[in-house]
Amino acid sequence: MRQVAIGLIKNDTRETTMKHDILIRHGDVIDGSGNKRFAADVGITGDRISALGDLAGDTAPEVIDATGCIVAPGFIDCHAHDDIALLAEPDMPSKVSQGCTTVVVGNCGFSAAPLTPRDSYPLDFLLGDQSYYRFPRLADYFAALEEAPAAVNSAALVGHSVLRVECMDQLDRPATDAEIAVMGQRLKQALADGAIGFSTGLEYPSNKAADTREVVALARLAGEAGAVYTTHSRNYDAQFRAALEEAIEIGRAAATPVILSHHQGDGPENIGHTAWSLPMIDNARKAQAVALDVYPYNAAATIIDPAFVISASRILISSSQPHPEMAGRELDDIAAEWAVDRDTAAQRLIPGGAIYFCQDEADVQRILQYGPTMIGSDGLPGGEINHPRLWGSFPRVLGHYARDLGLFDLETAIHKMTGLTARRFGLIDRGKLAVGAFADVTVFDPATIIDRATFQDPIAPSHGIRFVLVNGAFTWREGAATGTRPGRPLPRRASVPSQTLSAPQPFSIADF
Fold this sequence. Notes:
By secondary structure, the chain is an alpha/beta fold. It contains 15 helices and 20 strands.
């Protein structure tokens, strides 16, 4: 591996000059820490940042003029479902087009590994082509990504539903002690292979029968390995408060950091829930490690489930296996055409996917503003009709919520999608611009950045992202993907710390 010379840190002076592979000049650096921006050039050599500051005398064969632009760490999608997309769509245009350089996969209890190949899987929600479910160990999945790299880096959680499929003959009941023990062995192996945590999707049929005892036993193993527990909670509508209490209690009982996935309250009964849910999280954070993420929209997207239709004011069908012709249509219109009620129509469309308009925009904005909140897309690749969050989440935060609505400044917005996320998941030398850090970099125009994906056109690329580099290589350049695939799997805390950054430490409440 090429040795990287350590160069100028902000406000230092030096007499020598350096030659880099890439120089980004004249931009305003927002380094991911939450600190204020500063004018600086950025030098990149190999896959690392080699200098940062006034680099007027330095040279490079590739020089980027970032005048008027923000130079930031590459964005980390802390809540992605790109497990299969990394292999099936390795150019990852939905992510590089919005400045993302790393995705956290395996969320909501569903992951590509460990899953023994078989003819079919009793899962209610698959992440893509079933032919890609061929990884009995997480190490096998990482090896596939090493052999056929994607355009972005990836860190992997292990899904509870997948463990249940591997170790149980029926999913509609709690696991026995013997089954929990077998799941625990599979989880321990995955954690040893480099999983950054364990995830649940306790609202989904393949996962909902698990009782709290089962989840605590497995989450404890993640904590013992220095990993995290992330949870799509048991309920987001009528039983939302109880589900939130359970999620926090699981983290406490397991002595494991807990990350609350896509924090939201669905349906009219939860309008204004942030008045109690955020204080509940605040109170828990005084005694244990609790964090959360959110996607910047007031509509959800998931499987078609009659249990979900109750809380939505409007439902757009994204896909249906028995009735593919209904993709893109409103559930209420389909029900009227069939002369049935919503529930019956939903039952006829299963299995499939839908977009549920079920949240209050004021609550979404309060969650975004909440200091500990990270940004994730929760985007679902594939399907005929998709949610715009897959293509637009990060520019939407920067353009619509930060610049246009003024919910927070760009420094805060970028911290929520870079440094904060890297710290929570233990991603060493990622999520910040610093000498010696990996050269995951996004250059964007703060005056024009905006999401352009809509519910009518959900795959429209965002505007204002100029350049994206992953491990020092361009993946997006002036409005187009480069086709370069420099991404790497990031096994838990396996990155080698640079000379200037801190070595890995065990998680603490301060990390959250």
